[in-house]
Amino acid sequence: MTVVGPFGLILRDQALEADVRAALAAVEEGLTEATKSDVPFITEAAQHLVRAGGKRFRPLLVALASHLGDPNAPGVVPSAVVVELTHLATLYHDDVMDEADVRRGVPSANANWDNSVAVLTGDFLFARASHILADLGPEAVRIQAQAFERLVTGQILETAGPRDGQDPVEHYLDVLAGKTGSLVAVSCRFGAMMAGADEAVVDTLTQYGERLGTAFQLSDDVLDIASDSHESGKTPGTDLREGIPTLPVLHLRARAAASGDPRDRELCELLDGDLTDDARHTEALRRLRLHPALEQARRDTIRYAEEARATLAPLPDGPAKAALEALCDAVVHRAG
């Protein structure tokens, strides 16, 4: 029984554990190589977040999904590098949009340099991902392009906000499906597809990734409020302080609108105020941790994780399926 990677997945099969470790090590080498440039400054900026580490959640999914076929197939590791490069590129862009100062425990690229450098470095990573994709064939290029379109659409939807009359929670889940679910689904799809798995297996794992990706992001939403540690990779209450409307806050606002409870309305007013003030921020966190909206968000997280687990039912029993099921457990555990 071995813990693999910062995500904390427990693998009980020694052969699978050895293969996954080897694949992730190869991905790290691939990321280092892909972020090198003839211009030293570009290399420094492009490797900034690679060196900061991370969960490598998406490459882990590629590696596990590949065990439904031939995990040693030549396209497995490069496809894992592609999805992680794409994810890293979005982080550079996200930090500019969110005006973030810290990412993965180090100064964000925009704080370390400036917004222009951060945006262009993200573009450089997208370009390198595309270069690797070209060697994986036109089908891989098409799949990645569709996922990237969904990812950008999710970001635009988040920026635009809900349409008139649209349920904010429904809108938020649509945003997450695009911003997070799309690339997690592609990670599972690439792993199985590059390994030569049957089309039915590839489809099953793609559906699994869609649901697991949403559950994973929702668990971050819960952790942002509920955790006193740095489990989510950010200081607790970071999203709250920055005014990002995560699921617990959206549930609170829906409850306040539906019930008219003065305590709920008062908490909403507190959230609408200046949460850069430490005292107000601490009070908002304290009250949200006690509010039923947090438990409602936790139940939503568990529901998506269980839906992800249910999609795995048609797959043959074995270490890879057990590991994918364990990821669902890990997401639920993160959410408490």
Keywords:
72% helix, two-stranded antiparallel sheet, 336 residues, mainly alpha, single chain
Q: If you had to describe this structure to a student in words, what would you say it looks like?
A:
With 336 residues, the chain is mainly alpha-helical. It has 16 helices and four strands. The strands form two sheets. A two-stranded antiparallel sheet has the order 1-2. It is globular, with a radius of gyration of 20 Å. The model has no long low-confidence stretch (mean pLDDT 88).
**What low-confidence regions span 5 or more consecutive residues with pLDDT below 50?**
none
Strand content: under 5%
Give a quick account of the main beta sheet: strands, pairing sense, barrel closure. 2 strands, antiparallel
- Large-scale geometry: globular
What's the gist of this structure?
With 336 residues, this protein is an all-alpha fold. It has 16 helices and four strands.
Secondary structure layout:
Elements: E1 2-4, E2 9-11, H1 14-34, H2 40-46, H3 48-51, H4 57-65, H5 76-98, E3 102-103, E4 106-107, H6 109-112, H7 115-134, H8 138-160, H9 168-194, H10 199-226, H11 238-241, H12 247-259, H13 262-272, H14 278-290, H15 292-311, H16 319-334
Antiparallel strand pairs: 1-2, 3-4
Helix pairs in contact: 1-4, 1-5, 4-5, 4-9, 5-7, 5-9, 8-9, 9-10, 10-15, 10-16, 12-13, 12-15, 15-16
